[in-house]
Amino acid sequence: MPFDVKDILRQLDAGFAHEGGAPPWWQESWEDPEGFATALSEAHAGRGVPPPKSRPGQQYDFFHDLVVRHVGLERPAFRTHARIQGWQNVGFRTLHDLAARRASEWVEQGVEPGAKVCLVYGVGQELLVSLLATLRLGGCFTLLPPLGPRAMATRLEALTPDFIAAEPHQLPILRGHEKLLLKSRGGGAPGFTSHTYKPGDVVGLLFSPLVEPPHTPVPLTAEDAWKGALGDGMLTFGLAPGDVLAAPDFPVLQHLPALLFATLLRGATYLHLDMADLEHNPAPLLEAPLRALGVTPRLRDLLVKHRVGAMRNVLHWFRNPEEPYDAQAWRTWVKQCGLQAVPSSNILIDAAAGGAVLVSSRGVNDPHADVHTDVFPVPGRAWTLKDPNQSGQGAPTDVGVFTLLPDKGRPAGHVLLARIRSRYHYGGTQGFRHDGRTYPAKEVTAALEGLPFLMGTSVVPVSTGGLASQSRFILLAFTGHEPAPPEGEQEIKRRIEMLLGGDFLPDRIEFFPLFPHRKKGAVDDAWCASQFFTGALHRKSTDPMFQALTALRGRLLESAGNPGEDDPSSTG
């Protein structure tokens, strides 16, 4: 099908009313993804810069298209701001030289096409240089921001990397994998061309928080990564060379490398701002002209708290539709920051799928609809609605699980999409999730084993209900026949943060002076949930007779020296 990309870009900049559904070209792109990608690629080539080496459906040279192609622009590829150092810029030419030298060093250490390279960095220059060095060599990268040692061990065991790139001070969390660490002496000399991936080659293995369990490596193909970056750069965010994109507080494992690829592919600048610095002083967010700004509820509330006024530097802002739909809070922020006439959109990004998967129009059509539930599957991706009963059949109604096609080898979809006439609405998720992300309950309870005052733990998800509906994860902590110590909650949080990381903390901790029911030695989560929701745990923990029985049971277990196997008829 013929696609007029210039007209498409004009429509996207002007915006369109959701009532009429997706424009005809958008619907046609679902039916002809290959033709649509080819049309975008031809329009992306532009003038004044070397043409891209990648060809949709044929070959993909990420290093050339993300960096080499833009070295003559003399523009920053990456910007960051820190309280002490202030603004720091890394240009495309500098990025090219650093990545090429690092790749040269890594070749001598055995990195070759297809090698699995795990990148253990926070967001910053080192991550970007190592990511690009991996792409130059044709490696398969994995992003793994530093976590607690137990979480790191679980993920490295699942990944089985060939090499690890990390800064020296990260060695303590890499125990047992030190031999895989790549050395960087800063003396490499670039002297070879970059690698070209085939469409089906796996360019990345990502720990997506959208899959269950979240420590499962999900393959990202070269085709999905490049086409996703192209579509997001041109259409989702409308980036041009020199534009700036920022998404403070957007979870790294869900959104990178997709946001980086989309930005660099277009010769634009990725701006990284740490939330801790913004909480101290949000002024840096107002200094740079932002073509696209991602806003989370935490950033929104921070800006309201600091009474930030008109954000005249923002040309488009977007939010994740999986976050709580608190329309009043969003509109309070929009009004305070003078963004009523600024385009806004819903954008759901899954880096393991290549980038954005659900988006809405970024035009301003109705000042009272700046926060809404409308979304469309992204242009250029084939998709379907599957029956929520998980049978694999198509949805028989207008509500189903959004599923990208082909779906073979992909993680199961989790988003419920509702079709109302020509419009589509984000309708929640299959199962309980935190803003669409899974909660690693098993990792949390395993990390708490061995705490002397705990007889067992279980995680129970609860829906808050209402328009701002979200899931909360409550840790049930059983302390046996002794009450929880005063410092019990602090000790649990300290253990989780030390072994796993702050993102693993539950929303709430509930203590019960009871013994949990067990099956085959493991805490029976179904029993715990049933007892919690019916109020049985609360009643038992406050009933004098039941507490006396619990104390007796505790003494018997102590004398036996082994908690053993619970009888199915056990009640506490």
Automatic annotation (TrEMBL):
Record-level Gene Ontology MF annotations: ligase activity
Record flagged with keyword Ligase: yes
Keywords carried by this UniProt record: Ligase
InterPro entries per the UniProt record, alphabetical: ANL_N_sf
SUPFAM superfamilies: Acetyl-CoA synthetase-like (SSF56801)
Protein name: Long-chain fatty acid--CoA ligase
